[in-house]
Design brief:
alpha/beta, elongated, single chain
Length: 514
């Protein structure tokens, strides 16, 4: 069954026939071996044809020239020998199949990730003048989802054919569902060449498909790192290029590696800081611009390292979001801020609100609303005194989900503030569908008011038309405060009033500012 029989091993005057089809053998030998394979039994005639059955139903036959006729005992011993050897051949073929499955991509029948790592362990391949590139097909998952996996497989075949045709001097592997790897001379693998490969459409059946790819390249000059580290560097530059220059190709640089190591170091330190309580809250007062009294506070997460250095939130919050640590941090902030508000209310300050920032990652937690409700109940503060702040850019992700989640939160009595308004990507039409109770004007627009107050004026007017309160962030001068009061802004916060304060200083502040 399958392909026609071929010679896989030979010696003596048959040695030159290895890999030849069976019919190229001398006629008597060819005929004897053909009958042996068809009958699936050994033949003891002018020559000796031994049959070796295998589990794959694809038998093996061996021909030997005889100098004398075989005795019955000899034939019996050879039958026993064939049975024993068959088991050995089965093991060899099983090992061969396992080896093939380990190092071969099942769809394209080309090397896979394991084979790439083997190449990267070979000093002859990882040498000066060579480059590794990983090529990630952009939006391939969307093509699979919309046009089906069969179409996707055909597209992968078309991409492979083009890479094989134009990168013939390079080793080629498929190392992910939509990721290829190339290893070869640096003059054959350049950003320009890789980008050009995707400049024309790929033929899939009768349909031309436009496809872009993002690539990360690592030049192996002087590299003594192991294969996994080289591959890690290639993935690092690929990820960075995906974020900033999607559809292009870039080289790895030591600076990029240093930045990645710094992020990893900071991530490790952040986890330790959370466990060692180096993280704490500060509270920035918010001032009612109509009467100058304190209307509430915004809880701000801070991190002081063991060395005493303050780590800026814009450095560690994005890392916490990417790592998933933001979930634990978010609940920590909620509990601490609610506990602080409870203590202030015990001192008689019952009209204060507490603003608490929540991230998109937190909002997506399935039990976020239940956890929020439980924390507030345990803290013995009313939901109406808590205002959750989200950034405007959150609305750009999954708008319908966000509206549903925010409506659940509003139904419990919590306020919702849109932070940094005017700096995100949502349209004004989107805003009227969000169940928000407050807009916060970003400090950038407050700083510009001395020359152009049009955006601040517009946000205040827009917010009030939607029955929202307006808070101005980053108020630093009396002139800014006066202008905001003239424009009808409800609330301000910034250095004109106070920086973020420790909880122990809040009572004194409130005695002075109401």
């Amino acid at each position: 069954s399958g392909a026609p029989a071929r010679v896989i091993a030979a010696a003596g005057h048959f040695g030159h026939l290895v890999n030849e089809p069976l019919h190229n053998l001398p006629a008597p030998v060819h005929q004897l071996l053909s009958r042996c394979l068809q009958q699936r039994s050994s033949l003891f005639e002018q020559g000796l044809a031994l049959y070796f059955p295998t589990d794959s139903q694809r038998g093996l036959a061996a021909y030997l020239e005889l100098q004398r006729p075989l005795q019955e005992t000899d034939q019996h011993l050879l039958q026993v020998f064939c049975s024993s050897m068959s088991a050995g051949f089965d093991n060899v073929m099983l090992y061969s199949r396992m080896n093939e499955q380990t190092y071969t991509d099942p769809l394209l029948r080309i090397p896979n990730m394991n084979q790439l790592l083997e190449w990267l362990r070979d000093p002859q391949l990882v040498r000066d003048g060579h480059t590794l590139a990983i090529v990630d097909l952009d939006d391939f998952a969307a093509i699979n989802d919309t046009l089906g996996h069969t179409f996707g497989d055909e597209l992968l075949q078309a991409v492979y054919q083009r890479l094989q045709e134009h990168m013939s001097g390079c080793l080629l592997a498929r190392i992910g569902s939509d990721i290829f790897a190339l290893l070869g001379p640096e003059e054959h693998i350049t950003p320009e060449i890789l980008t050009e490969l995707f400049s024309s459409a790929f033929p899939v059946g009768q349909q031309p498909v436009r496809l872009s790819a993002t690539s990360g390249l690592v030049q192996l000059n002087g590299r003594c790192a192991n294969g996994s580290e080289i591959l890690k560097d290639a993935h690092l530059v690929l990820k960075q290029t995906k974020l900033t220059q999607r559809g292009s190709a870039n080289y790895f640089s030591p600076k990029l590696g240093q930045q990645a190591r710094e992020r990893m170091r900071l991530m490790t330190a952040l986890r330790e800081a959370f466990n060692q309580t180096q993280l704490f809250l500060m509270y920035q007062p918010k001032i009612d611009l109509r009467n100058g009294k304190t209307s509430g506070f915004e809880a701000l997460l801070r991190w002081r390292s063991n060395e005493g250095d303050m780590i800026p939130p814009d450095r560690f919050i994005p890392l916490a979001e990417k790592s998933g640590l933001i979930i634990a941090l978010g609940y920590f902030v909620l509990r601490q801020a609610c506990a602080c508000l409870f203590r202030l209310r015990q001192q008689g300050h019952n009209n204060l609100t507490m603003a608490i920032n929540v991230s998109q990652v937190q909002l997506r937690e399935t039990d976020f609303v239940e956890q929020l409700q439980q924390i507030v109940q345990e803290s013995q503060v009313p939901a109406e005194a808590i205002e959750l702040e989200i950034t405007e850019s959150v609305a750009a992700e999954d708008f319908n989900f966000l509206v549903q989640r925010l409506n659940e939160i509003r139904a419990l009595g919590f306020g919702i503030a849109i932070d940094d308004f005017g700096t995100g990507f949502s349209s004004l039409g989107v805003l009227r569908h969000l169940p928000a109770t407050r807009l916060k004007i970003d400090r950038v627009f407050i700083n510009e008011m001395h020359s152009d107050d049009s955006i601040a004026r517009m946000v205040i007017s827009l917010g009030h038309s939607l029955a929202m309160q307006i808070t101005a962030e980053g108020v630093e001068t009396a002139e800014q405060q006066q202008k905001l009061q003239q424009l009808g802004c409800d609330e301000g916060q910034g250095w004109l009033y106070a920086p973020a304060l420790a909880e122990k200083d809040l009572s004194g502040w409130l005695q002075q500012h109401g």
